[in-house]
Here is the input.
Amino acid sequence: MHVEGGIEILTTPLLLCEVANALRYKPDYDPQKLVEAIGVLSGLHLITEEIDKELLIRAEQIAFGTGVIIYDALPVARVEKHGITCITADNTVNL
Here is the structure.
């Protein structure tokens, strides 16, 4: 749906770092595959919204209240801010 323009995907600047780090530790990935994957991800026309003070404060509250790390609480805080759906593969986040 996103590729067809049916939905927009909102993310933080941390997404590229998190994906690159996860792929870096995959046994079958080498530097060239990592560069290609980052290029593909960068071309997905994701909407990147900066992390402001209010978002970070709310993420801290969520993190302390649920026991997740602040990085994982950021998407949940963004969902609350915008009233949108959060899609995550993190089983520890309870929305």
Remarks:
- Strands lie at 10-11, 47-48.
- The CA atoms of residues 64 and 70 lie 8 Å apart.
